[in-house]
Amino acid sequence: MISIVPDGPAAKAGVVDKDELISFNGEHVPATATIRWINAFLEDNGERPITVVLRRDDEDKTLTITPVIGCAIPIQLETNPEANALTDYRRIVVQTGYLRLTKTEADLAVVVGHELGHNTMGHYRKKQLNSLIGAVGGSVIDGGFLLGGISTGGAFSGYLETAGWNAFSTSFELEADYVGSYYAARAGYDISGSEDVWRALSLENPGSIRMATTHPTTPVRYLQMRKVIEEIAEKKRNNVPLMPNLKTANAEETPTPVSSRERND
């Protein structure tokens, strides 16, 4: 074993450090590429119980471990006075400047939830595809000019690649805001009042009040957040599962919007 997560399923089942894994449900654990094999096994198995045979002090033991779904994306705090958070889809980074704007742990959970929303909604892959489509279309235009004896230097390819990357960016940002609020609420945080994060951000960056480029304006995000908080509270009152209603991309016309803020905060 490499390490045991405290209070995790393996620890609760009785697995301890230095135990040697022998088999999962009768399948031998390979000595090479072990982590890759375990990850593939767990992905196929889901949350079903696993009969694990392990060796401890030259004695084989059989335990039953029931996996639970968890988040494998680490969260890092970066020393930076700018109020920003971002994800490269392998980790989530929150800059210390955001600590000025978040009054409670729930506020910070909403920020982290936003970045997690980008990951789970596949925004990066969608932006990559849009960018590729734009670049290909631009290359066709550049090629047409070149056939006419005019070199554009790849201007159309570069411009449409960027345009493709930014396409639907504000919608993605609002969607991540929306889904991220549910993540925070499902984690047990009381997010009532967390919409004030966007009010604080607008005071720090007044330009965000009026102009939307790759991110929605802060008033739009503030109003959406208030609607989402009301939506979640209503579901709690009615004992309805806290699952987001991803039905529309127009956040300004519905209390169940779909979009977010990217840089990627």
By secondary-structure content and strand pairing, the structural class works out as alpha+beta
Please give the largest β-sheet. Answer: 4 strands, antiparallel
- Which percent band covers the strand fraction? 5-15%
| Number of discrete domains | 2
Please give the radius of gyration in angstroms.
24 Å
Principal-axis shape equals globular
Residue-averaged pLDDT = 84
Query: Poorly predicted ranges (pLDDT <50, ≥5 residues)?
Result: 248-265
Find the count of extended strands (DSSP E, 2+ residues).
8
Q: Could you characterize what this model shows?
A:
By secondary structure, the chain is α+β, with helices and mostly antiparallel strands. It has two domains: 9-65, PDZ domain (Pdz3 Domain, Roll); 75-260, no CATH class. 46% of the residues lie in helices and 13% in strands. It contains nine helices and eight strands. The strands form two sheets. A four-stranded antiparallel beta sheet has the order 2-1-3-4. The protein has a three-stranded mixed beta sheet with strand order 5-7-6, with helices on one face. Helix 3 crosses helix 6, helix 4 (123-147) packs antiparallel against helix 5 (155-166) and helix 6 (169-186) packs parallel to helix 9 (218-237). The model is unreliable at 248-265 (pLDDT under 50).
